[in-house]
Design brief:
Structural class: alpha/beta
Helix content: 25-40%
CATH topology: Rossmann fold
Strand order of the largest sheet: 2-1-3-4-11-10-9-6-7
Shape: globular
CATH superfamily: Class I glutamine amidotransferase (GATase) domain
Number of strands: 11
Number of domains: 1
Largest sheet: 9 strands, mixed
Distance between the termini: 117 Å
CATH architecture: 3-Layer(aba) Sandwich
Strand content: 15-25%
Length: 296
């Protein structure tokens, strides 16, 4: 009987040791799992997709890279859009790229030209597809600074963006700016009047009655003496505007010439809010109005 009890006791003891051992391993595994980094998640698919093009066929602005990087970072930090950065125009097409994983315009919701210059490498089918992307599909376009100094031989481009570059009469200077539409999301953060150090373009084949001027130079604070680069006798020098091109939203601003401009939170916020508007995430007017100086 004592031998049976001893045998039973030993069995229970061994079982207890085994249980402790198993529990110890489970506990150790749990600790190990907590110490390990989490498994990587699949890339989040954002609601909107933005294509940024920085091709230059003329003057090359030093700010192209920082402008492109800023827009990429805005999308990543806000979680509102994914960004594809390109210095070529290959993706400006609706042509199917088959199996090489390239995205065409059907994938994107917005095109941004960051100080593009000259006649871009686009054939007639690409031009047709890009205009259709905006005009017919109702997608967006943002023009940064020298986007106005682009595609002079493509009349529909000038119609879409609102005009073309025609000199910068005061080069880079302390520009006196008036906020003409403080309700528009891209300029809502600016005061009624302010100054920014930047290069302000003078547009040609541009008409105020075809756009909604958001920001403009204060004509009463400009120096007109001995300046042969001044071509607008109406002294109407827009700094930013919004407009429709068919069903698509278009925003342009001459601000962003310098690298330093992209370190300015005001300029970054303007383009961030402009992108949101062009993507249809916010609302703002595209209705034209007279020059403020003509209303007094």
């Amino acid at each position: 009987m004592r031998r049976l009890w001893n045998s039973s006791f030993c069995s229970l003891a061994l079982a207890g040791v085994a249980l402790v051992s198993v529990c110890g391993r489970v506990s150790a595994q749990a600790v190990d799992r907590e110490a390990l980094p989490p498994a990587p998640h699949a890339k989040q698919i954002h609601l909107k997709h933005v294509l940024v093009v920085g091709q230059t066929k003329g003057f090359e602005h030093d700010s192209v890279s920082i402008a492109m990087a800023s827009i990429f970072n805005m999308g990543k930090e806000s979680g509102l859009w994914d960004t594809m950065l390109r210095t070529d125009t290959e993706l400006l097409t609706k042509k199917d790229f088959k199996n090489n994983n390239a995205k065409n315009l059907n994938y994107f919701d917005l095109i941004v030209f960051t100080s593009t210059t000259g006649e871009l490498d686009m054939d007639e089918s690409q031009k047709k597809d890009m205009l259709s992307f905006i005009h017919d599909d109702g997608k967006g376009f943002i023009g940064v600074h020298a986007a106005l100094d682009t595609n002079y031989k493509w009349p529909e481009y000038g119609e879409m963006i609102g005009g073309w570059f025609d000199q910068h009469p005061w080069m880079t200077f302390m520009a006196p700016i008036v906020n003409e539409d403080p309700d528009f999301p891209a300029v809502r953060h600016f005061p009624k009047a302010f100054v920014k150090y930047d290069e302000i373009y003078q547009p040609k084949e541009w008409s105020r009655d075809k756009v909604n001027v958001l920001l403009s130079l204060d004509p009463s604070k400009l120096n007109y003496e001995n300046n042969p680069r001044i071509h607008r006798m109406d002294h109407d020098f827009p700094v930013a505007w919004s407009k429709m091109y068919g069903k698509g939203r278009v925003f342009y601003s001459t601000l962003g010439h310098t690298e330093e401009a992209w370190d300015d939170p005001d300029i970054r916020k303007m383009y961030f809010e402009a992108i949101k508007w062009a993507l249809g995430l916010t609302e703002g007017s595209v209705t034209s109005h007279p020059h403020p100086a003509q209303t007094h």
